[in-house]
């Protein structure tokens, strides 16, 4: 099929293709895609047959044809001509592109050793084969390791140190709850299926919806009870709620005696964590805290849907653990439609050893922190693990020159004259702009892959349903071709097709193979009720929930290797759930707290290239409370300057009651070049590792704000 750069206009439907949304979202929606007689996609819908997707998907994915057939899509490999970032390119063949990458890697290894090459990737696709095959090449060549810290670490750590496992009640039980608490996630914008089931509970059961967040976002507007807390203070709210539960008899003492490690110690600890104490920290009123505690304390079937957003603080793991602990104090886990859910990662049991080449992994190879790429590329000794420089990068599925914290360091590092960068992408992202070689990548409907839904319970097949442009290649192709050129293609795991990788992985994991999955479309892996609700014990050896988490030595899904050890100020973490001010507390010089929350029409930096998403979002702006705006003589639409020790930028102000005084919210993620001075919001975010296992605190920034002059 000849590819043309014309957006698909609805054409007569030939058939329906079944696939999966590949993007970095817990929903992993099952999709039905209209296919025209010309072999092009039309409308994309959520599958009504899938009991979690339930026929509902977000608008940005529904219009995916706009992205697939975008006139600016990359379709040929390119070589940089002139200076980095100058924007002058020469089209080259695939063989030339791959030969030059392999040659650059061989030269980098000869100068500084194999660790000079850093394969850098993330979750631009959540497909297991296209995302993780790069690890096989990394292990085979002994290149620097990739510690993927940027997204999940604080949340997963806080949850698992409580439960002992990364799983929970069936998310579809939200529809069977009498109260749904959506804590720290703007689900209307980022996990629409959470709202599908919450609204069903409201309609069919009269369930109350409570939203805890830092601003009046679209999810808050759907709430029966909305609690707007100051950023980084969620643990204080959780502690006060548990204080009230013990005080007023809502605590299920018999349940805790059987299932928790130290309820007596927790109760004693919480004696001083009163609603008045929490009100002074969170900005809520005592009445709001009391009403929330009373509602969930008198509603046995309360389902706590705990998101990622409130954990993207320097005390994020503590906040997650504290919010999670409420369900144990109340005994909510005992009931269908009750308990606390964050992610189902443990239930899928996917054996990826062949795919990732773990059999020949060398534990002595250094692991570099994804979040600290700016520090790595500018020669920070600690970030480099006190070893040699990184002089070559292979980047797939991520856009660090836009999304990584400490953007000025990131940009400085990428512009190094001795750094070789190869990028495999859909568009000329800001990372591709500063690369040496850029290669065009397939999109999800153009290749086979398998997905797992962290926000639900399904393994889903995403088969190829349309042909890609003739000159576009899969991630797997790039890895296989580089393996041939670098002399490791004979190692286990190489030379396999997507079909073979998926089939082998599923069978090695105890599931049926590719053909069965294709026929069934998904496998429902949800454990039975007692296991999902931990009624036969939590995941720790003694079966007890941990009110006293072992921050230093406890099990966590993504701990740094032993050679790195624990990260951040671990000694400051509390014995019991508590508010700890590891956050960037506002001060006289930086009187505002800034959060960089997700926008409805973007997904990280994806979709920021599509016209409709950009039009719907308008322009980069920062939300400012009217009282703050009046004090600083800022009017709606004014250009303001915002800054801290990491940098400054200019941005338009949106004066709104959606944020509380002293709080700023910049929804994104907009490209850097969409901002007034070509620098984006992540100039202001930090890459210092959070305790205990690292991660990027994107929503935890103290800043100053002023009206721009001139």
TrEMBL record:
Coiled coil: none annotated. SMART domains: Molybdop_Fe4S4. Belongs to the prokaryotic molybdopterin-containing oxidoreductase family. PANTHER family: OXIDOREDUCTASE YYAE-RELATED (PTHR43742:SF6), TRIMETHYLAMINE-N-OXIDE REDUCTASE (PTHR43742). Residues 14-72 form the 4Fe-4S Mo/W bis-MGD-type domain. It comes from Rhizobium terricola. Keywords: Iron, Iron-sulfur, Metal-binding. It comes from the Bacteria. The keyword Iron applies. One of its GO terms (molecular function) is oxidoreductase activity. This is Molybdopterin oxidoreductase family protein.
């Amino acid at each position: 099929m000849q590819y043309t750069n014309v957006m698909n206009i609805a054409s007569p439907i030939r058939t329906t293709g079944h696939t999966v949304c590949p993007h970095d979202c817990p929903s992993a929606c099952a999709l039905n895609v209209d296919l025209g007689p010309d072999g092009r996609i039309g409308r994309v819908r959520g599958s009504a047959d899938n009991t979690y997707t339930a026929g509902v998907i977000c608008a940005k994915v529904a219009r995916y044809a706009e992205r697939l057939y975008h006139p600016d899509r990359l379709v040929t490999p390119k070589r940089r001509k002139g200076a980095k970032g100058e924007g002058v390119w020469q089209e080259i063949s695939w063989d030339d592109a791959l030969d030059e990458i392999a040659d650059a890697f061989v030269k980098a290894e000869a100068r500084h050793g194999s660790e000079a090459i850093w394969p850098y990737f993330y979750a631009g696709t959540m497909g297991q084969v296209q995302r993780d095959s790069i690890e096989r090449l990394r292990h085979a060549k002994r290149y620097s390791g990739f510690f993927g810290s940027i997204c999940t670490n604080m949340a997963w750590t806080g949850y698992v140190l409580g439960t002992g496992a990364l799983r929970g009640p069936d998310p579809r039980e939200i529809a069977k709850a009498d109260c749904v608490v959506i804590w720290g996630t703007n689900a209307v914008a980022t996990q629409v299926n959470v709202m599908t089931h919450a609204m069903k509970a409201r309609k069919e059961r009269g369930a109350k919806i409570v939203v805890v967040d830092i601003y009046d976002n679209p999810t808050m507007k759907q709430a029966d009870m909305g609690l707007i807390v100051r950023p980084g203070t969620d643990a204080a709210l959780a502690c006060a709620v548990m204080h009230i539960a013990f005080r007023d008899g809502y605590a299920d003492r018999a349940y805790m005696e059987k299932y928790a490690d130290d309820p007596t110690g927790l109760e004693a600890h919480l004696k001083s964590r009163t609603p008045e104490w929490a009100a002074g920290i969170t900005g809520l009123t005592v009445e709001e805290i009391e009403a929330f505690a009373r509602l969930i304390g008198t509603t046995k079937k309360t389902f706590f849907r705990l998101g990622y957003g409130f954990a993207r603080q320097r005390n994020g793991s503590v906040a997650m653990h504290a919010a999670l602990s409420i369900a144990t104090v109340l005994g909510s886990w005992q009931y269908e439609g009750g308990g606390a859910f964050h992610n189902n990662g443990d239930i899928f049991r996917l054996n990826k050893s062949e795919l990732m080449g773990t059999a020949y992994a060398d534990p002595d190879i250094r692991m570099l922190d994804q979040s600290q790429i700016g520090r790595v590329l500018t020669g920070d000794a600690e970030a480099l693990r006190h070893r040699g420089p990184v002089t070559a990068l292979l980047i797939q599925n991520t856009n660090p020159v836009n999304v990584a914290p400490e953007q000025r360091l990131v940009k400085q590092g990428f512009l190094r004259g001795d750094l070789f960068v190869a990028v495999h992408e859909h568009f000329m992202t800001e990372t591709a702009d500063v690369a040496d070689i850029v290669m065009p990548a397939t999109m999800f409907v153009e290749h086979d892959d398998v997905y797992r839904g962290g926000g639900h319970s399904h393994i889903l097949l995403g088969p190829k349903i349309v042909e890609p442009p003739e000159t576009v290649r899969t991630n797997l192709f790039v890895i296989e071709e580089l393996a041939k050129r670098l002399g490791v293609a004979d190692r286990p795991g190489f030379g396999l097709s997507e079909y073979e990788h998926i089939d082998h992985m599923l069978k090695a994991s105890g599931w049926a193979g590719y053909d069965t999955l294709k026929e069934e479309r998904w496998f429902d892996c949800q454990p039975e009720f007692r296991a999902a609700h931990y009624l036969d014990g939590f995941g720790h050896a003694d079966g007890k929930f941990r009110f006293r988490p072992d921050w230093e030595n406890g099990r966590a899904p993504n701990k740094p290797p032993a050679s790195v050890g624990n990260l951040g100020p671990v000694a400051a973490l509390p014995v019991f759930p508590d508010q700890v001010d590891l956050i960037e507390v506002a001060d006289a010089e930086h009187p505002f707290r800034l959060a960089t929350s997700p926008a409805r029409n973007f997904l990280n930096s994806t979709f920021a290239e599509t016209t409709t998403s950009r039009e719907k979002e308008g322009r980069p702006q920062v939300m400012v409370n009217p009282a703050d705006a009046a004090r600083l003589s800022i009017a709606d639409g004014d250009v303001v300057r915002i800054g801290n020790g990491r940098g400054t930028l200019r941005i338009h102000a949106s004066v709104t009651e959606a944020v509380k005084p002293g709080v700023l919210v910049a929804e994104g993620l907009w490209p850097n070049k969409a901002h007034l001075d070509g620098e984006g919001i992540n100039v202001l975010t930090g890459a210092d590792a959070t305790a205990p296992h690292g991660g990027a605190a994107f929503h935890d920034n103290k800043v100053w704000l002023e009206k721009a002059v001139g």
